């Protein structure tokens, strides 16, 4: 029988920049990725935005943050703020 820690799947962790912190307890984070094009091998930059839960309203626009996947908290929020890596200047 598996222990409780083994049965829980590992949660995804992402690092990105806070784009918006206007809403109460919610931040919008932009995740930037760079990958080579499959055929032409040129580095293609892509970004995606996700909404994360910020319980204490401590993140501000421009901050570099780390978020972790969690249960659905609202219609759009499936991520939770774990730490602020670097404050905006």
Characterise the protein shown here:
- The structure is a single chain.
- With 89 residues, the chain is mainly β.
- It has a single domain, classed as OB fold (Dihydrolipoamide Acetyltransferase, E2P) (Beta Barrel).
- It is 4% helix and 49% strand.
- It contains one helix and five strands; from the N terminus they run αβββββ.
- The protein has one helix spanning 4-7, and strands at 13-20, 26-36, 43-53, 64-69, 79-86.
- Strands 1-2-3-5-4 form a five-stranded mixed β-barrel.
- The longest helix is centred in the N-terminal third of the chain and has 4 residues, at 4-7.
- 13% of the residues are buried.
- The mean pLDDT is 93.
Give the secondary structure arrangement, pairings included:
Elements: H1 4-7, E1 13-20, E2 26-36, E3 43-53, E4 64-69, E5 79-86
Parallel strand pairs: 3-5
Antiparallel strand pairs: 1-2, 1-4, 2-3, 4-5
């Amino acid at each position: 029988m598996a222990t409780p820690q083994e049965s829980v799947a590992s949660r995804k962790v992402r690092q990105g920049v806070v784009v918006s912190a206007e809403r109460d307890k919610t931040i919008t984070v932009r995740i930037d990725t760079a990958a080579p094009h499959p055929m032409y091998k040129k580095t293609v930059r892509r970004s995606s935005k996700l909404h994360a839960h910020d319980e204490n309203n401590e993140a501000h626009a421009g901050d570099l943050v780390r978020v972790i996947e969690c249960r659905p908290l609202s219609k759009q929020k499936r991520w939770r703020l774990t730490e602020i890596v670097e404050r905006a200047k």
